[in-house]
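Aim 2 progress update. The chain analyzed this quarter is reproduced below.
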Amino acid sequence: MQKDYTNMWEGLGLNLENHAGLLGVLSDAYKNIYLSQRERPKGMEYFDFVISEIHGLRVEEIFEAKKEKRKIVGTFCLYVPEELVLAVDGVCIGLCAGAEVGAEEAEKFIPRNTCALIKAFMGFKLAGLCPYVELTDLLVGETTCDGKKKAYEIFNEITKKVYVMEIPNKKGEDGKILWQNEVRRFAEKLEELAGKKIALEKLKAASKIVNEKRKALQRLSFLRSYDPAPISGLDALLVNQVSFYDDPIRFTTKVNELCEELDTRVKSGIGVAEKGSPRVLISGSPMAIPNWKVHAIVEGSGAVVVGEESCVGERNFGTLLDDDFSSLEEGMQKIADRYMTINCACFTPNEERLTNIIDLSRRLKVDGIIHYAIQFCTPYLMEAFKVKKVAETMGIPFLRIETDYSMEDIGQLKTRIEAFLEMIEKGVIV
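Predicted structure tokens:
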């Protein structure tokens, strides 16, 4: 029987009625989408447990960390260096939300035509639904889009604890210098917050922890290249989503255990879909919990999602940090360099992202690319044009999807995706 966390939630100031409704909807959606899957790996039981306790046991763990005087840092983007947070004995928690919740409250502060991701992180706070925001000592934003950077100004008025890192628009030398200085300033902010200096050995240990997590996710990604796929795209997406919440050392252990099971499946030819099923790469905007609808439609239509060219996917773990450094200054430099390898749509030009899509499509043996963009997410909506040209050059069918977090367009999306998969099977390039 699950523990009753009502007193804990009440103590955090959550709206208990709204929160109960959210957890009920999340539970129902999870049962219908995840627990109904066939041939799921046994190793996914851990991740099922994490979701069942996402506002319970994990929140209790963070309470315990706070008792130990550790600082809780909430983040909204991959550009926030987790290594630096861990180096001051902090806890790093991802705060992006993937549900259409609290939009009415959020729209009192921001325009209606704001992307669903921004509305959601503000809405979860304003509707009293997110225990993590309440537990954080620092909320770290970044300037990856105009909507976000202006929303952070408002969010700081509401929470009084937002710190923003500036992301350059270009990856030239000037941009790299700007970013190196931002990483150093962030390190100083963390030292001030934690009341301690970052030590070289602490930074090296933290870098190893984060690199091991990336290696485990790279291993999972590699296993998805096999046919038949040993794990569904839905389950792999969930693992990637949990990577932003869970304790990094425990998470790495559980992912590697899952991969051991998947290795055995590959050798035995066991898959979640029939060998030869259409293999789809989903590219574009991030998909935060519980944004599972595109994967659910694709896999419910007989295909398998084999990769995500996304922040909740390859962009998160695709590049390792060179952790062979012998001074703090060298460590900071290498951390800055590593995070500049992330190919966000905020950059211009962004040819590296297109190259990555080509490489992923070949490695994962992709039959089709679905470019997913959240409505009003201008950077990714704009880049769909270039991604389509890449797909055409490779001779791979392409589908552009623009949607939000609501369920109202499920029928329309299903019709379009089914037609797209039919084109793949017929060898039609569009």
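The mean pLDDT is 97. The chain has 19 helices and eight strands. These observations will guide the mutagenesis experiments scheduled for the next reporting period.
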